[in-house]
Amino acid sequence: MFSPKLILNNNVKALVCDMAGTTVNEGGIIYKILYRTIKNFNLDIVNEREIDKWHGANKYEVLDYYLKRTYLNEKYFKELQPKLHKQLNNNLIESYSKPGNLSLIHKDLPKLFNNFRENDIKIFLNTGYPKEVQESIIKSLNMNEFIDDYVSSEEVFFGRPKPDMINKLANRNNILNNQIIKIGDTPNDILEGINAKCYKTIGVLSGADNKNILLDAGADMVINSVMDIKLK
Predict the structure, then answer these.
(1) At what angle do helices 187-195 and 164-172 cross, to 10 degrees?
(2) What global pTM score does this model have?
(3) Which helix (H) or strand (E) holds 88?
(4) In this structure, what is the dihedral angle of CA atoms 62, 14, 28, 205, given to the nearest 10 degrees?
(5) Is residue 199 classed as helix, strand or coil in its secondary structure?
(6) pLDDT confidence of 2, banded at 50, 70, 90?
(7) Phi and psi angles of residue 11, each rounded to the nearest 5 degrees, phi first
(8) Better-predicted residue by pLDDT, 3 or 140
């Protein structure tokens, strides 16, 4: 079967890569835990399939959506919100700490990314995970050894599909948005890259969504995984 490759040219100064499903393999645990956390607080959600529309989104924003949908009273919202957020963090960190639940998307990812870095292409990570969870994953998988910077949607005003995370990384590293390629496995990743006016926005099939969904969202190209990115 033909596997398309993304060839990087001299215009590209950075890759902004999603984490779960793009650079990190966690078997979709995040969405199972997100649903379980919502159900444990007896919030108004129909079924687990409803979570699909939130692929790639800020996980706190998802919790807050269901919290507001269930409790219109602002007092209840303010009382439950920190407990709900903390429960999600605890559930994720506990699950990811179990052997076999978390790995890099490919064993040669560090070699690939460091090759790009040696050729003056920076590697950034962004995510809908809370900051505490993001840093736990990066530490667990030693990702600091082959990336240049990272940001969580918790650190910006709006998560995906808004461009805030990409804008923050670009500004912090003195790189123009049109010198960045955004890579992710969900429509929210694709829309984020488009809204940030990245040079290209690339979908990968290693995570949540399929080729048609990613192309319909506006991906310039869909490849099997980040391992199909090559230097010119």
Answers:
(1) 50
(2) 0.90
(3) helix 74-96
(4) 120
(5) coil
(6) low
(7) -75, -20
(8) 140
The CA distance from 128 to 132, in Å, is 11
Q: How far apart, in whole angstroms, are the C-alpha atoms of residue 124 and residue 22?
A: 12
- How confident is the model over 31-42, as pLDDT tens digits? 999 999 999 999
Give, rounded to a whole angstrom, the gap between the first and last alpha carbons of the chain. 23
- What's the token pair of residue 192? 């984020």
Element (H, E) at 150: strand 149-152
Residues in the chain: 232
pLDDT tens-digit series, residues 3-12: 789 999 999 9
| For residues 83-97, average pLDDT | 92
124 and 169 Cβ atoms separated by less than 8 Å: yes
3-state secondary structure 211-225: HHHHHHCCCCEEECC
Question: Are 153 and 169 contacting, i.e. CB atoms less than 8 angstroms apart?
Answer: no
